[in-house]
Amino acid sequence: MFTIPRFIIEEHVRRFLEEDLYLGDITPVPKEDVKAKIVAKQRGVVAGIEVAKIAFEIVGVEVIEALRDGEEVERGQTVMAVTGRAGDVLMAERTVLNILMRMSGIATTTRDIVEKAKKINPSIRVAATRKTTPGFRLFEKIAVVIGGGDPHRFNLGDCVLIKDNHITVSGGVGKAIRLAKAASFTKKIEIEVRTVDEAIAAAREGADIIMFDNMDADEIRKAVETLEQLGLRDKVILEASGGIRPENVEEYASTGVDVLSSGYIIHSAKPVDMSLYISSEDSG
Predict the structure, then answer these.
(1) Distance between CA 209 and CA 188 in Å, rounded?
(2) Residue 3's pLDDT band (boundaries 50, 70, 90)?
(3) What is the pLDDT of residues 123-138, one digit of tens each?
(4) pLDDT tens-digit map of 23-37
(5) Is residue 188 part of a domain?
């Protein structure tokens, strides 16, 4: 798993808290110490634990126990327990729950799709896309990794990715790839294709990664077989993308590609429902 420096995570979390607190919390509560626990209301894969710890730490709340990112949680199970001033716990409550629920939903969905894909092809990777929530992409990508997936590129500077509109304005697959080779030698060149002929042209022009974009499984299988027959298959990483969901992931995993990229694992992931419950330190 990649390592994101703590200060970057903390900067994001401070902005999340500020969104809810820039006018403070005007709902009064007694100034007393309390204990609280976050409880899962459904089964899932937990993600966002380390982020939640930072959020609580920022407002002065101590985390006394917590599950680890990637652990499976059952309905009714405690995800995290904390102690601190009541007002401080309540200031962070909704932000922390939003982070945990969203990230856990993505990790849960990702793990489901990864397990289904690997039953068919144990070496295949399941990757995310850039169809993410503005401002929350980093955490959505982290959740994908916790769920067993690959983050794919984080931004436009990660690698060259030639899409259909790039091909159109460049005047074709070959011209687009030749233009892309002017970028740094440290960056891989990926290109979207929609036909077998485009895949052949891309492989011959020296693309590092060929993405079969919105092609059905039979078309992709034919393209992979053709590249093998021409001796071009081993020169490229092959990726399938477009409409890959839990109900069809096994079909795409059987096509012979190396990677399945799916926007579904982020944009269609349902949050894992959780609640925070407070008890007074003096309540026994």
Answers:
(1) 8
(2) confident
(3) 999 999 999 999 999 9
(4) 888 888 999 999 999
(5) yes
Determine the average pLDDT of the residues in 93-115.
98
In a domain, 222, yes or no: yes
What amino acid occupies position 60? G
Q: How many folded domains does the chain comprise?
A: 2
264 and 206 in a single domain? The answer is yes
| Sequence-separated (6 or more) residues with CB below 8 Å from residue 161 | 153, 190, 191, 192, 211
Residue 22 has pLDDT above 90, yes or no: no
pLDDT at 254 over 80: yes
pLDDT more than 90, % of the chain: 89
Give catalytic status of residue 163 as yes or no: no
Residue 84's domain spans which residues?
A: 6-111+270-279
Contacts of 164 (CB under 8 A, 6+ apart): 192, 194, 213
- Catalytic residue from among 131, 187, 188, 222: 131
pTM of the full structure = 0.94
